[in-house]
Prior knowledge:
This protein is of the alpha/beta class. Among the domains are: about 60-230, Toll/interleukin-1 receptor homology (TIR) domain (Rossmann fold, 3-Layer(aba) Sandwich); about 245-395, P-loop containing nucleotide triphosphate hydrolases (Rossmann fold); about 400-465; about 475-550, Arc Repressor Mutant, subunit A (Orthogonal Bundle). Helices cover about 35% and strands about 10% of the residues. It has a 13-stranded parallel sheet with strand order 13-14-16-18-19-20-21-22-23-24-25-26-27. Helix 24 packs across helix 26. It is elongated, with a radius of gyration of 39 Å.
Amino acid sequence: MDDRQESQTTSSARPCLKRKLDPEFQGQNQARKILVVEDPNTDVQSNSTATSASFSRSYWNYDVFLSFRGEDNRKNFTDHLYSALVRVGIRTFRDDEELRRGKTISTELLNAIRGSRISIVVFSKGYASSRWCLDELVEIVHCRNTKGHTLLPIFYHVDPSDVRKQAGTFAEAFARYEEWLQTDMERVQRWRVALTEAANCSGWNLESLANGYESSFIEKIVAQVSCEVEPIGLNVARHPIGINYRVDRVKDLLDLGTSDVRIVGIYGMGGIGKTTIAKAAYNQICYGFEGSSCLLNIKEISEQPNGLVRLQEQLLYDILKMKNLKIDSVDQGINLIEKRIHGKRVLVVLDDVDDMGQLHALVGNSEWFGPGSRVIATTRDEHMLIKLGVHGKYKVEELGEEESLQLFNLNAFGIRHPKEDYLELSIGVMKYCRGLPLALEVLGSFLLGRSIGEWKSELEKLQKIPHHQIQEILRISLKSLDDGTMDIFLDIACFFVGMDKEYVIKILDGCGFFPVIGFNILAQRSLVTIDHKNKLRMHDLIRDMGREIIREKSPNLPGKRSRLWFHEEVLNVLRNHTGSKTVEALILNLSELEDVNLETEAFTNMKNLRLLQINVVHLTGSYEHLSKELRWFCWHKCSLTFLPQNFYLENLVILDMQHSNLKQVWKKNKILKKLKVLNLNNSKYLTKSPDFSQVPQLEILILEGCISLVQVHESIGNLKRLISLNLEGCKNLRNLPRSISNLKSLETFNLSGCLKVEKLPEEFGNMMALTELLADGIAIKQLPSSFGLLKNLKTLLLSGCKEQSSKSWLSLLSSWMSPKSLNPVSLLPASISGLRSLTTLDLSERNLSEDGIPIDLGNLSSLRNLDLS
């Protein structure tokens, strides 16, 4: 396949490009197009142009053929022009006149003319005195007329009309020819016709264009020829599905119409197409710069001996065409790049950067480059772009389902649509790949030509063992992670995808992993994402990569792996007591239909177990066999009525016992100095909360749906760090302990559905940190007078309770709104403007009369949501 077939460049993007394709070449091109698969997301014109441009560069042997009279200007003007053309990467043929033999033009020169896309003819005073030059010109004009070549004349100290009419020195030359070649006047006539036709072409006149200044004249010639000549493009992809839209996003960030120096970053997970997009963008815009360079695989090359030096040499060669350049050190290269490129308008692509040293060695800072320069950097690490100070960054998104199917099918079948018998299997592979181009291409190529049975077998295998070629690419992102961050990544991959970020932070912080910085690093490398609900997300193939890292440590003995999550393997380890001290985390999440009884002795050898989930499991035996290193213990549907006294929980950070049969959590006081989260959600037999005297670090307490709960222990007031208390749906709870007012850190308090709670403690207003109070449906008749002290309250829900009268409710409202002017029978409160932070007020179903609306409701400057329905 041609190097440039995937370029999305269109002819409209090149205003200075004027070419007429050789009919012979067009036919050849059509034949070769059979190999080109059209991008369904690209219009016909775009694909055709990209393909034509691709083949045009490889079709011509040279970009430019130089025709000139050596005696006139070989060592001055033409030499300078030749050097300038070569310096900007234009392949130029210049004949060595001293090698000429005989009186007729050589086959070598004929082939050079015919193999050049453009012929530049330097008409000087002595040009016509060379029969060799005139024969060259005849062939050049012939190629222009028959093969679509471009002829560009230069009038070097001669008048174009002298060339056109064969006057002046040209007349003198032809007078001699007509005397010498009387027997070959057809040849002389061909020369005349060629001169006339060449002089009629649009070209350059030294005197009129540059006022005789040759250096300026040459610059203008090189600039226009650069526009005429297609840049050498980069191979983008065999099947560039969906590239157009993504390249356009990058070009928007580049903002090519401005004269400032802009640096733009492209980032995302491995295999997502960052390099492909960067190369496609490069192909489309590189023609508009004085010089351009695309440095691929920087991370890999820079790790090799003198790798950075070689990259510096390539950068200078690409832009300046400096041959045989030798750089001795990175520091020398930095100085050379800064001095030689300074002030030039250049385009540089830096692919796969992962270290600031690479960036400093290659592009330094924006002051190195001239106005209008652009730098595109691709990386897996978003933080690299932040440190680089990019002007814009684009995170590459996965392919959509339709794009994914097309890319997979093109690799698996060579067509956009799967064979009928393979449709469901193709969709299965597409869903497994989750829009990752690398995976779609690798698996498509792997399954090409295989039977349906082989397809099914491979899909089953992928559920347990990811494809090695995909894994190799994805694992590059993990290479420089420290041990703690790697542990965070592996824990998420095996257990925590879809869970709340803050919840997981508490678990991993308890394990000593520093998750706050760890999450940021993983997110910047596109290994983990946080969705709009603050849930941890991970691409399925990234997740499978993490799990495969664990599996391959002990492929045949699951009990010797650090993490266990696969249902059958976990059951096998626990039933056969094959767990070892290597096991750090284990999850067994059964359904209610499964009735599994296990012995606690199965955990005896798992001395380092820190994460354990055993939902709907029945455990028998002594709990002293369980690890003393547990940080997270999750046991939904626990059948115990209380936790055994010999169950060591002192290192526990989160205790999650949702939907349990617990009547009380523990009989005797437990010393749980590290516990931060206690979740007893929907433990319907729980009658009273535990004693909190020895749980000083508790931050989140969830008793939602504990319908038998009648009291909360007075010790709750000792929880100085408690920020969230959820009692929603505790319909038999009657009173709150007075000590609850001591919760100075409490931010969220949910009492909704506590139908029998009739009052709040008088000191309720002491909870100065409270921002959200959800109390709809409670039986409260009077708010405490201290309520007005809750200056940070932003959300208040007091809907429901239809049995209250308008007067009793407005009396309650008055006492809260205006604590200095209490009047239990007043319909209107004196003032409510002191509630500066309130954003949401829900008074729905409160049976308010029209005159019961506070008169200065409009003074609540932060209020955004008001419900009076």
